[in-house]
Here is the input.
Amino acid sequence: MAERETGARRAGVAGARISRRAVLAGLGGGVVAGGAMLGLSGGGIVLPGYVINAFIAIEADGSIVFACPAVELGQGCTTALAMIVAEEIGADLDRLRVLPAPRDPGRYGNPDFEGHMVTADSKTTRGYFAPLRLAGAQARQALIEAAAMIGDWRTGDLDTVDHAAIHRPSGRRLDFGEIAARTTPRPPHLEPAPRPRAGWRLIGTSPPLPDSRAKVTGQYAYGIDRRSPDALVAVLARAPHPGGQVIEVRDAAARAVAGVEAVVRLEDAVAVVARHTWAALEGARLLDIDWSPAPALSDATCAAALAAALADPARGTTVAAHGDVEAGLTGGARRFAFTLEAPHVSHLALEPLNAEARGETFGLGVAVRSATQSPELDMAFAARTWKTAPFMVATEATAPGGAFGRRVLNDTVRDAARVAKALGRPVQVVRPLRDELRRGQVRPAATQRIEAATDAGGTLTAWRHRIASDSVLARHIASTFEARGRIDNTATDGMRHPYRVAAEHLAWHRCELAPEPGFLRGVSAGHATFAIETAIDRIARAHGRDPLEWRLAHVDAPRGRAVLERAAVRAGWHAGNGGHRGLALMTFRDSWIVTVARLDDAPTPRLAELVIVADVGIAVHPDNVRRQIEGAAVLGLSLAGTERLVFAGGRALIDSVADYPVLRADSLVPITVELIGAETAERPSGAGELGVPTVAPAIANALARVSGTWPERLPFEFALATA
Amino acid sequence: MPVITLHINGAPRVVDIADPAMPLLFVLRDVLGLKGTKMGCTEGICGVCTLIVEGVAQRACQLPVGGLDGARVLTIEGLSAAGEHPVQAALIAADVPQCGYCQPAQVMRAAALLAETPRPDRATVAGAMAEVLCRCGTSARVVDAVLAASRSATIGLSGEARHG
Here is the structure.
């Protein structure tokens, strides 16, 4: 036994010497068969059992250990990724154990995310699909080679299924447990190809999710539940307005609260550190702080700044262009121009943002545990704050209670590191939801202008779309912003519509505003799609054309046409069975979606139903993809109808969480989701955000069937025909 | 320092709390280590700390412990041994939870509803479940699960009644 373990480790370490360069060349830039085997090398990886590669080890009882490179946010990615691995290995899911991969972007970074370990952007399943198939195939080959040795068989006569190697000629079967008990599975000699699709048994099925029971019994632990026994808890009092700095603080009342251990003054906040959460909250409430003055900030100042940015061609960065759009716009039979406005909106993830930090290694290093979407970015926050090197920062991701993009730039890590460092004690910082609503990250407000021209028949001939908004990347990740040519893709996502047009110009005009920009599920597609899809409907209707027919006449992409055609059938577009319908189409993260909103026949028509047809490529776990799209559509409905932060007098008008109304269980309509296109797809495409952006324009287009006018501002009013 | 006796999940727990204004939420989580009741807005709005006191669904962040001497409190830990309550079973069967953070509160709100109204209609369920926010967008499926549970066997609050 001991000998075998040594053997396995030796094999791994031998691989390590040649792995590094290959990792960077391989996983970082997309894996190709052949040399990629080295890129998956498990050298130096700490996994229990016999290490096959960076992602997979085989334990002595034949269980598979999978080092999962992504964070489970409730979107089910650990299940989907485990299914990909199990499919290749021929493993049973219930004999596959998922462990979090170490923070090592060189090995575990997402190829679709420039090699970073960030669980966001609908990139997890599609990014890791190819490398995990190869990793799994290697483990399968390792088991086959081990089984061949045991049975004195030819490897070519072996396959794996149901957690066993099968010798086809004899029909004999060796359970993985038996293989691991009798020999040492080692990284394989041959580079195996991924299992052909015809042999898939798991991908495309919907096995039960592993954590549902723990979640409904309160046993599932989130970051806020995992404060270390020796850690204190801190709540920061921050100014109600952006940029507020501490001028003077009177803290006698806060210090008098039973349980308060310390008050720590920071530049832009005062932290009350206590033995329990209530004391920290009470202490923070009782602080009397003079803040530096509020900026000139209101909805009006934001709107004026956005309008000015939009009007200034010098501030525009071209996102995409072809043809002569000026000539196209002036030379068309008809010309259209629309201006659309979207407000600042917030995530309102229900688990308060939190992070625990503790000094380590005589204070030179720091360990951080946090409810996060990216241990790698947590590390960056911690290293910068602690003034130490990345290798001196330990990170641990806990399950988060709602992420929605908010926990990518997880700034409570910075807060926790500041307070822990000042105090010299481990501290968990908990940020109250009200503070986050008032001062936290927002999907930045946007003002958009769409100009278009058509010929006499209504065919689109020219299209100009400009967005003015603030930039998350420019504000928070300047290096990425520069690397992407000073275009923030999270401010322009959704602009690339699927419609054929001879001349086009897409531009983004950056406009710095005081509220802190952040990533929110769907990012800019949340308003860009609203603009595009209402504009398309207005153009089609202006020419007396059916919006579905118009879209089909302008979309070449087969997947786009397929979702349109299927949605028409599914939603009864041509049936004329009462009810007013509006639709919206989008392609996003290489997926396609159509949402059809149906109003009922009440005197004031109410939204009665949303019908969604989506093509996400290969849906690894279709039930979960449908859940994701449906949940995202609920957010889309809430954003369409109610969500907005109001700014006045220098700050967000949030005195209570109730000041940010969101949709609840009694204001829902039936949502159906159908997936198509998996059979012909070659890989999964993005699914996590897909459901959000098309909801608002679909509803707007349905409302316009009745009223003849389109809302030009998010959110907009509509009634719901609730159950 | 007031000494308060709470009957939590059927067992008496004596707590010595300096501040009688401390909400039950933090007594459970920070003093007694019962972390299944989640911290949300602490303003009584989001509902993710919902539990059952004296048979009624309440928000633990809005209950000063000083007023609860002798009260019977049922938390998610006491509702069932391992998720056997029909609402939990229905949520598990349909894999409703996404992030799961609100789910204990959804369960407790639904359990209280069904104990009082064993056969509610959809609008009643939706109205009750609207008291617990879900940002993942599971609410429609939660309502479906509660309705499914309501069609199954008797639904009492056994965890509370056991020693009550």
Q: What stands out?
A: Residues 103-116 of chain B form the longest helix (14 residues). Residues 29 and 35 of chain B are 5 Å apart (CA to CA). Chain B is about 35% helix and 15% strand. Confidence is low (pLDDT under 50) at residues 159-164 of chain B.
